[in-house]
Please model this.
Amino acid sequence: MMRNAPVDHPDALRLVVELSSVYVACDDCGHSRILRLDNLTKVAELGVHNYMQLCRKIRCSECPKKPPAFRNLTIRPTWRCDEVLQSIA
Ligand SMILES: [Zn+2]
Model:
């Protein structure tokens, strides 16, 4: 059985510009941070267009560099349209 990679994520092909923020936690050291709109705008300018590409880019700033498959990150995206739905509900 293959491990669930971000590639299999249903949101994999959604665009970075649709995100409002991304919560990132490292399961190895416990360090967490939130990528906000200005961070996301910056990565989009660097050529990262969809969520799958973004997940490959994200790494823990505290841990030594590792290939994406060996990172233990919890990544929780917040999509702009979901926020709209929440404010209507
Ligand atoms: Zn870490």
About this structure: The chain has a mean pLDDT of 87.
